[in-house]
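Entry 12.
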Amino acid sequence: MMNEGKLSIPFFPDTEDICQSTKQLTNMICHTEDYKCYQKNLAVLKAQEELYHKFKEFRGKSLHLQLEREQEQYFERMESLHSEYKDVLTESVVVDFLSAEQRMCKLMRIVYDGIAEDIKLDLSYICLLYT
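Predicted 3D structure (tokens):
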């Protein structure tokens, strides 16, 4: 319904509007059960300082191997790393944390995919990196 004598101006969001909406989305995510579970499991893991230190050490080494994926014997080295840290990776605290983290990553992926799907950017140059 339009008021007589008043001009209707369409809404064009600016950066501030987007920042406010991002804060609202972030707030929604932080109130999900998945996020609360992630934070709880992270706190439990961090409370066991030695285990947390070993777990971070494993993750650092794992990431390093993944980034150097071109190297020979990648799978053997990754398997060896998992064997080396088997005692850490089978701890129930670590298993619970990884499960919670996986659920959070899935949620974030849904959010990222939703944004990327609707915002059309030309990213065709990326495929050139892998050819």
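Annotation: The first helix runs from residue 15 to 30. The radius of gyration is 22 Å.
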